[in-house]
Amino acid sequence: MKWALSGAMLGARELLELAPAAESSGYHSIAMPDSVFYPETVSADYPYTPDGKRMWNAEMPMPDPFIMMSAMAAVTERLEFSTNVLKLPLRDPLLTAKQVATMAVLSGNRIGIGVGVSWIPEEFTFTRTDMRTRGARTDEAIEIIKAVCAGNGPEWVEYHGKHYDFDRLMISPAPDRAVPIYVGGHSEPGLRRAARAGDGWISVNVPTDQLKVSIARLSDLRAEYGRSELPFEIDVSPTDITDLDGYRAIESAGATVCRVTPWHIYDVEQTTVGRIAALHRFADEVIARY
């Protein structure tokens, strides 16, 4: 099992202090969420809470994940970073591929990209993108990023799809190792996208029984697409596990990465000092013993 620290809802300066502490404690990576802005009025329910309400307020810090990942890479040597998840259809895929390629080179191939489709209608309206085509555009954007960041350094690429179309071009710098792309989502389309096109899958924060259902479905879908033998990360965030037996059980179910928020597990002050103490404690009590 690899251990990822959640970087959600933390300030930019604080994350720069947490990253070296996580690296020294044995964490594998830090996962950064993506929230472009907080609409005052939202015309859809949040899909991951019983009452449809978001778990954060408008003032909650949500640093740009690409800028934050680059900054944290600069103050660490081994720690890896990923998005959890980037709202890909809100962005132009070529511009995104340029950023991802630069981050991968800058960090020494310590970048992974987790992608999702977004659930907020206002995000699409205000960024002048089409919510109706978000799934199909995400599929094409994944292909474009994979082509640019295939791990062959700068090379000529072209793409001719329904939503994105361009002739031969080269983006430099480009990484000498392929950037992994992980797909988020528990819906059937999301699971199919992960099984068909992803290098892994990312869960939301849910109980173990829900994770096991999705993991089993992913196994079936990967077999359906003939991809069972390929490497595949399963990145989970169980809300009901805090002990070794629980983590071992979810690993037995297929999880390869566990995303944790130690300052929600232990009774500590919600300050930088308190959070660093919590991540060290989790490392001593779980990671080291695991």
Identify the notable features of this structure and list them briefly.
8-stranded parallel barrel; TIGR03619 family F420-dependent LLM class oxidoreductase; oxidoreductase activity, acting on paired donors, with incorporation or reduction of molecular oxygen; oxidoreductase; 290 residues; 18% strand; single chain; TIM Barrel; Diverse_substr_monoxygenases; EC 1.-.-.-
Structure in words:
The protein has 290 residues and is α/β, with parallel strands linked by helices. It has a single domain, classed as TIM Barrel (Alpha-Beta Barrel). 40% of the residues lie in helices and 18% in strands. The strands form two sheets. It has an eight-stranded parallel barrel with strand order 1-2-3-5-8-9-10-11, surrounded by six helices. A two-stranded antiparallel ribbon has the order 6-7. Strand 10, helix 8 and strand 11 form a beta-alpha-beta unit. The longest helix is centred in the C-terminal third of the chain and has 17 residues. It is globular and about 55 Å long. It starts with a strand and ends with a helix.
Mean pLDDT: 96
Task: Write the element-wise H/E pattern from the N-terminal end onward.
Answer: EHEHEEHEHHEEEHEHEHEHH
Major sheet size, sense and barrel closure = 8 strands, parallel, barrel
**Number of spatially distinct domains:** 1
- The level-1 CATH class: Alpha Beta
CATH topology heading: TIM Barrel
Specify the number of helices. 10
Query: How much strand content do the residues show?
Result: 15-25%
Across the major sheet, the strand order is 1-2-3-5-8-9-10-11
Shape: globular
Share of residues in helices: 40-55%
C-alpha end-to-end distance: 8 Å
Per DSSP E runs of 2 or more residues, the count of β-strands stands at: 11
- Poorly predicted regions are none
Identify the quaternary structure here: single chain
CATH architecture: Alpha-Beta Barrel
Secondary structural class: alpha/beta
Q: Rounded to an integer, what's the Rg over CA atoms? A: 19 Å
Q: Give me the CATH superfamily.
A: Luciferase-like domain
